[in-house]
Design a protein that fits this description.
54% of the residues lie in helices and 15% in strands. It is an alpha/beta fold. The strands form 2 sheets. The chain has a 5-stranded parallel β-sheet, with helices on both faces. A two-stranded antiparallel sheet has the order 3-4. It has helices spanning 15-24, 32-39, 43-53, 65-72, 76-98, 133-144, 148-157, 161-165, 177-193, and strands spanning 3-9, 29-31, 58-59, 62-63, 106-110, 125-130, 170-173. The longest helix is centred in the middle third of the chain and has 23 residues, at 76-98.
Length: 194
């Protein structure tokens, strides 16, 4: 049976970089955030979102993701409500996706909220990506063209590295690109012999 390897880390830690190394090594990788974004465009999901958040998060009948983010990252209850709409659909989509990889010894399931959403319970092993707080903040500011305050709000809504590390089998400190790539290689060797 195909094993599920969870890949997680706080915002700005570099999960995508690590995921890309696995993809480059020929390992199937499921990026949950990408799929969640696609799922959020479906009419039935948009209706559910509008029921909870109102029409204020729509501009010209298009979901204003930035406005939605401002709301959910300032209110943990609203974030839970949004996740309750999106996560069941992502889980179902992943269940269908993994059927395409029945012959793979393992796949990578990449998500920022592996622990917060409970998906870690479905994983055989877990990899956490870390980076110093200031590095993470700078990466997200550059990537999302956002403010330090917005990044800190998002970080506050996620588990801390200490919380993640206690439940992880592998840890990659993503500061130096060459070392990160080497760490992925080491983990791959271990996963292939288990």
């Amino acid at each position: 049976m195909t094993k599920i390897i969870g890949l997680t880390g706080g915002i700005g830690s570099g999960k995508t970089t690590v995921a890309n190394h696995f993809i480059g090594a020929g390992i199937p990788v499921y990026i949950a955030d990408d799929e969640a974004r696609k799922i959020m465009q479906s009419p039935e999901i948009l209706r559910e979102i509008e029921k909870i958040f109102g029409s204020v998060i729509f501009k010209n009948e298009v979901l204003n993701r930035q406005k939605l983010a401002e709301i959910v990252f300032s209110n943990s209850d609203k974030l839970k409500q949004l996740n309750a709409i999106i996560h069941p659909s992502v889980k179902k989509h992943f269940g269908n996706w993994i059927l395409n990889y029945k012959n793979s010894p393992f796949v990578i399931y990449e998500t920022a909220i592996l622990f917060e959403g409970g998906s870690y319970k479905d994983c055989d092993k877990i990899i956490t990506v870390t980076a110093p707080l200031e590095t993470r903040i700078e990466r997200v500011i550059q990537r999302d063209k956002t403010s330090r305050e917005n990044v800190l709000k998002r970080i506050k809504m996620q588990w801390t590295d200490d919380q993640r590390l206690g439940k992880s089998d592998f840890v990659i400190e993503n500061i130096n690109p060459e070392i990160t790539k080497s760490e992925v290689g080491k983990i791959l060797k271990i996963l292939k012999i288990q």
